[in-house]
């Protein structure tokens, strides 16, 4: 779901921007940053791109069926009005 490369890039950017006195901890900081970012992102309520596309397709099919049913209802209402 999440691109591990992007998480690593963010963690690396964070460690590179540490003040010079903290550079000795950069490796550990980068690893912990990666872990924290991954944990926090996992808590978010995301769906995968694949699931999104499946649901988008389902919605499109449902919309098409609804339009077809609406056309049938309109036709039946028209016939009833003609008979009355």
UniProtKB/TrEMBL annotation:
Predominant location category: cytoplasm
Subcellular location: Cytoplasm
GO cellular component, one term: cytosol
Example GO biological process: ubiquinone biosynthetic process
Keywords linked to the UniProt accession: Cytoplasm, Ubiquinone biosynthesis
Domain of life: Bacteria
Pfam families (UniProt xref): BMFP
InterPro entries noted in UniProt: UbiK
Pathway as given in its UniProt record: Cofactor biosynthesis; ubiquinone biosynthesis
Function: Required for efficient ubiquinone (coenzyme Q) biosynthesis. UbiK is probably an accessory factor of Ubi enzymes and facilitates ubiquinone biosynthesis by acting as an assembly factor, a targeting factor, or both.
Family: Belongs to the UbiK family.
PANTHER family listed in its UniProt record: UBIQUINONE BIOSYNTHESIS ACCESSORY FACTOR UBIK (PTHR38040)
Name of the protein described by the UniProt record: Ubiquinone biosynthesis accessory factor UbiK
This protein's encoding gene: ubiK
